[in-house]
Amino acid sequence: MKMQYEKQYSNCLGREMEFKIYGHAGKAMLYIPCQNGRFFDFENFGMAETLAPWIEAGKLQVFSVDTLDAETWSSGHWDCRERISRHEQWFHYLIDEVVPQMISRAQETNREEEPKLMVFGCSMGAMHAGNLFFRHPDLFDMVLALSGVYNASFSFGDYMDELVYQNSPVHYLSNLPKEHEYRALYKRSKMVFCVGQGAWEDELLAGTRELDTVLARQDIAAWVDYWGYDVNHDWYWWRRQVEYFMPFFLQ
Asked: For the chain, how far is it from start to end, CA to CA, in angstroms?
């Protein structure tokens, strides 16, 4: 498997950021690690091995990035406005700095003029993945989100401002106008939201059901899948879910 390590200065964040690329061609996937995670978690927790059949076949190229959760969603030191402002800088780091590189590589390796991307994450990474997709279906046409919560209140409590709102999918999707241009893009996309019902999944199960309700009310079609009571909040199950869902995305 071809691998490439990158360390680049981010103008959006004012610091150097690291990421790693797996594969030589195929659908470009942005991988968001779990809470406070690092780019190397994709490899260290066995997800690179799980996705190896698609990566080595040239069907998938993965960009695994660093989170900034310790300064944002899980910070115990900054106030809410500072946290969500820093998150928005990280969001724009991905959209304005990482995504253009993904598109450029896809154009070069796949000979696509206007490639669309896939985004994938587990746990808090699933929340970020869903948020990236729903805010930018112009860039992403596939999302795989495993064991996520999609309501910003789990981290920000009762605090709400315009930045928290635009990073809380159940809030902004609930108010999506009937004539909004994103509806057509959502229809042409593939979405999977999955959660188990076993240990440590209670909050994530409730969060996925909340998103499921909002999507159904807004007539946004997605595959929302609830796995069994033996399915825990754990890498073992996320790897099994990836094996199960990837043929749906990359037939």
From this structure: 20
